[in-house]
Amino acid sequence: MKFSNVNLKLKVLLPTTLLVVLGLAFCVFEMTTIAQDVIVRQTKATAESMANSYAQDIHAEYDVNMAIARSLAAAVTASANMEPEGDRETLVEIVREVSQQHPDLPVVWIILSPESYDDRAEEYKDIDKGAVWYSATRENGKTIVKRKGPGKYKGDWFEYPVSTGNEVMTKPYHWEMDGVDRVLVSCSAPVTKNGKVIGVAGLDMFLDDIIDDIGKITLFETGYGFLLYNDGDIVAHKDPEQIGKNIKEFASATVAQAVKEGTSITDESISAISDKDMF
What pLDDT sits at residue 3? Predict the structure, then answer.
């Protein structure tokens, strides 16, 4: 049928109908695009909120344990600066009490450089073997304080506070306890006498529960959580193959810098691991 043979009404309706269909299609496309944009924005906002919530929970647990180490160091510092200096047995009771008050901590300790706390090394040579190195642990529901004598004053837990005068939380490390491999971090604060750092006081805390909780984090269908040290090394991840790698391997330099500085950041990129959009 030729278009010229179509009656006038149909000639008018056909283009009009076509325009209406095209208009509706355009409106549907625009509405779909807008709806998708709204969903994406809401999803990003929700993901960011959830991430911040998890981060705050973990940060709070770290802060509590760092505060305990800080208070312990302050008590030992006060004892060291008394005139005359405090008794070593007082330090034993201090470390015992902190352990009893916080039974979830595997070890609480006071470690001072040899002959720095007092002038009684000879008096305590058979008990302390020349050094203040006291550690309290929980065994069968009881607190046991061990007087270890001089040990290896090596590692960030000791060297960093002594050299800088600042507290530190170490990188996570593995330690076998009762035949079980555990993941711990050490919280350590400097002890001073007459303005000079003479040692450290602090504690070890388990990371196992935190690592398990992080592995259970699910953000929508594909999102997940992982834990980083501030140098970018991955401490906990749902994929064990990623643990020990550095965030620089799959994230931008901007993200790596934010991790180092401990600041919040949102970033969108293509994941080097999954080759998919990553937020």
Answer: 47
